[in-house]
Design brief:
173 residues; alpha+beta; Beta Polymerase, domain 2; 6 helices; 54% helix
C-alpha cells in the first residue's frame, strides 16, 4: 500500500505564491521601464532634439539610440492602459514644459475597461491664451510620442452637466 505524499504546509504554498507574484511583478516593471525609455526617446525627437543631441545628453551611443527607436515595440500593439501607464511621467513632463496642467485620462482607460483597440482620451488645462494652433500642435506632439491618435480635450471645452461624467471619471496622470 502506497501512501500519498504529505500535503505542502500552507506557509510554503503561500510563500511560493508570493514569489511567483514578485517575479511576475518584476517582469512587468521591466517591460514598463523598457517601454518608458522608448517613449522618452520618442518625446525627445518629438520636441525637436536630434539623435546627436540625445546621444550627448544621455551619454550613450548613436547606434544605441537608433536601435531603441527602430526596434521599439509597435505602439499600436501595446494595450492602451499599459501605454498610458508607461507614458504618464513623460506626458506630464511635456505638458509642464508647454504650460499645460491637470493632464488626466478619462474614458475606458480610466475606468479600467479598455480593450486592445480602445482609444486614449486625455483631458488637459491649456495655458491662458493658447491658440487652436498651439493646442493642436501639442496634441500632435503627444500623438508622436504615443505612436497613435488620441482624443485630447480641454477642461474649458467641457459643457456643464453634459460632460459631468468626463469630469467624474478623469484620473490625473
Amino acid at each position: 500500500m502506497t501512501s500519498s505524499p504529505a500535503p505542502e504546509p500552507p506557509c510554503l504554498i503561500r510563500s511560493t505564491y508570493d514569489l511567483l507574484t514578485e517575479y511576475r511583478d518584476a517582469r512587468n516593471d521591466e517591460d514598463l521601464a523598457r517601454l518608458r525609455r522608448v517613449l522618452a526617446l520618442r518625446a525627445m525627437v518629438a520636441v525637436g532634439m536630434s539623435q546627436r543631441q540625445i546621444v550627448d545628453s544621455l551619454g550613450i551611443t548613436q547606434p544605441a539610440v537608433s536601435r531603441q527607436l527602430k526596434f521599439a515595440p509597435e505602439l499600436n500593439d501595446v494595450h492602451p492602459a499599459a501605454l498610458v501607464e508607461a507614458a504618464a511621467p513623460i506626458l506630464t513632463s511635456l505638458a509642464d514644459e508647454h504650460g499645460f496642467t491637470r493632464l488626466a485620462v478619462f474614458g475606458s482607460v480610466a475606468r479600467h475597461q479598455a480593450g486592445q483597440d480602445s482609444d486614449i482620451d486625455l483631458l488637459i488645462e491649456a495655458p491662458e491664451g493658447t491658440s487652436s494652433f498651439g493646442f493642436i500642435r501639442f496634441k500632435q506632439v503627444m500623438e508622436q510620442v504615443l505612436g497613435r491618435e488620441i482624443d485630447l480635450i480641454s477642461y474649458g471645452g467641457l459643457k456643464p452637466k453634459l460632460d459631468d461624467d468626463i469630469r467624474r471619471e478623469a484620473v490625473l496622470l
